[in-house]
Amino acid sequence: MELLIVTGMSGAGKTLVSNILEDIGFFCVDNLPPQMVHKLLEISNGTVSRIAVVMDVRGRKMGGVVEELGFSVTQEEGSCHILFLNASDEVLVKRFQEQRRIHPLIGGEIATIHQAIREERRMLAPIFQEADYVVDTSLLSPTQLKEHIRRLFLEDVQRGLVVNCVSFGYKNGLPSDADLVFDVRCLPNPFYVPELKSLTGMNQEVRDYVMGFDESRQLMDKLQELISLLLPLYQKEGKSQVTIAFGCTGGQHRSVTFAELMHQYISRLGYFGVTSHRDAGKEHR
């Protein structure tokens, strides 16, 4: 089991980091009281391999609990690490003002944001000293922060990008969530081959027919070349998911073939790919 404790200054980006960690396979829990983390580990033992727990001054006394957690996880042949998110006082003040949030420590004798930040730094000083990773988000854009976190906690960085290859039929409309749409209606249509009409691109006979033409193979080569160029650029910009849609008339034959073959190509590149066929199996036109 891998336990990652995400902590640090309020306003430094813990919520965003939690979302990023979720995208790369962590089970994330926010604002869990430190005393309840042991129960979480007990319940999830054997079912979840990577857990990230967001802990901050809302949980007040964390030092002893964090130390005990690290010892317990290590005893169970797991690993426990601390990620501390930091930012300058000036940046934190600006973020609270822009978001119109109230610092969690304001109240009683602590009346201003500056006082709250000073007290929070004092309270978190022991955790800061023990942190395995310290990330200063003062000058990082959300995209840069995503890339940084991925490189820290994703062994295979490419797998942080999920590529969904979708097939669809134009007669049923465009998929609303597509990032890239390719029209393959220009290719020979298996619909007009009697023995292939009732099949889909999931059948090898249909794929052999579609890819048996020079224009089909040339188009696939060009699309693969384009996709191999685009995916690293999407990743660099911090996208966690890209949807590539292939459309033909009914969404049964050509589009399914291209979606399936592109999925195979993307997997060979090392990305995590999934396929979905929106209209395959629907009543033929």
User: Beta-strand level of the residues, as a percent range?
Assistant: 15-25%
Shape: elongated
Quote the average pLDDT.
87
Q: Classify the secondary structure makeup into a structural class.
A: alpha/beta
C-alpha Rg (nearest Å): 25 Å
Distance between the termini: 52 Å
Element string (H = helix, E = strand)? EHEHEHEHHEHEEHHEHE
Largest sheet: 5 strands, parallel
How would you sum up this structure in a few lines?
By secondary structure, the chain is α/β, with parallel strands linked by helices.
SSE topology sketch:
Blueprint (H helix, E strand, L loop, with lengths): L1 E7 L5 H10 L3 E4 L6 H8 L5 E5 L8 H13 L3 E8 L2 H11 L13 H18 L2 E4 L5 H12 L8 E8 L10 E4 L20 H7 L3 H23 L4 E8 L5 H16 L2 E6 L8
Parallel strand pairs: 1-3, 1-4, 2-3, 4-5, 6-8, 6-9, 7-8
